[in-house]
């Protein structure tokens, strides 16, 4: 059931959901970066109403133009005709309609910016994917830890109930021995004190069980109406402890998604630095447009009719402002990449310590399971002998109470050792990155 709790915690974790949204946002940024490969296309449609006025004539207000239908260069052509000078003027078109389709191709940016920005976006998306894997793995591990903590508290309730039963049995023995003169009133009172102490121990254990059950419910985000029934026994065996700690450290440092995320983030920062640095250089772009307008401004004189024209060209632009800004911004991005590299070293050191601590916890817990088992066997026998001697009038109540306390403590120690053996393996698996699930989205 521990894996089921971990899976449920991973599926319902708010931290994991936040990482999922971060990955989705990063994916959209990658899509936007890919769209920059497409030439920029612009469409324009416009209508303009112009104010009316009297247009000036070419020849002024007086005089005439003399014309003929004869070919040019004819001497004394005939016939001729006169045209008033003020009759020659350009027409006004007051309703202007304009449509245009334009395209711009960032030729130099294809090589200097767009490709690098796209590479930076894809690496940032990979980093977000590793962040999601790390968040899910932590939620999975935390869910299992909460589950075994709940099992520990349930086991503590059993131990407390056993301790209370032992204390009550000793109280009854003390009362019986007191009635026949083999024990003093002090023995009975001490036995009563032990019963009261055991009752408090049981209540505290029950309170802790309620708290730990709540932690499991919070981790799983389960409702109050959902019944939780443990499906694991602490009496079963656990996998043997792995052998070489140096190999474990190497495994953890190579498998943990946190390090992979930092690697991708550093690569993205360096790609961004390269793209920003392109601002130092001139930008070459090609452009073209098709205009369909009434009247078309390229046609002279204006006429009230639709007319199509087109144009193609190339341009080189450069700004000293971009040159001055690109250098510091590129240096900043490179410094951010170096910062991430340093953070990677710190993370590797932290993982090494985490792996070693988790490994030693496994070794220690396994040893504790063996030793506390022997202690428990001795404590059970010691209590049996002490109680038998007391009931036969050959022992004291103090000896029995000491044996009771030793038995209760040994039971708790053995319970904790079994739980710790499982918790240590959960933490070791997390430190090694073995609880990481691949992220497909």
From TrEMBL:
Gene Ontology CC terms: cell outer membrane; efflux pump complex
Major location category of this protein: membrane
Keyword Transport: yes
InterPro entries for the chain: OMP_efflux, TolC-like
GO molecular function (one): efflux transmembrane transporter activity
Keyword flag Lyase: no
Keywords tagged on the record: Cell outer membrane, Membrane, Transmembrane, Transmembrane beta strand, Transport
PANTHER family: OUTER MEMBRANE PROTEIN TOLC
Family, as annotated: Belongs to the outer membrane factor (OMF) (TC 1.B.17) family.
Protein name: Outer membrane efflux protein
Organism of provenance: Labilithrix luteola
